[in-house]
Amino acid sequence: MALLRTAWRGGPVRATGPVLVSVTDFTCAHALDLPRAFRAGMVLRRSWPDLEGAVGMWLWTDLRRRRCGSVSVWTGEAALRGFVAWPPHVAVMRRFRRRGTIRADTWWADAFEPAETWARAERVLAQAGAGAASQVTDTSR
Length: 141
Known about the structure:
CATH class: Alpha Beta
Protein name: DUF3291 domain-containing protein
Order of helices and strands: EEEHEEHHEH
Oligomer: single chain
Strand content: 25-35%
Largest sheet: 6 strands, antiparallel
Number of domains: 1
Helix content: 25-40%
């Protein structure tokens, strides 16, 4: 799997304890939707430093498989839910909801370690790309 990712985009929070990691994986039904979906993610990314409870995030894409998404790190479930309900995010989700398939996976980590977080996200995405996952949510600690 050949993932391309953006540089880390920090949020307003420096994580000093447990964090909630969210991995999203959007598979576009049509190749022309991939650049549009990724661009929409980049627009949301600009606001990351202002999002309550956001530690930071990466955007990623797999061009050959028409997939893109994010790996985001949060102070907790309330912060993630706040982002999911944030009007600009809701608008993006509505715009693309019939243009592909979305999967999500979440987990708690005792501390934010960038390399460790990215490595686990890559494993999750590799499994999803092999068809082993679908709409997974694991919020166990």
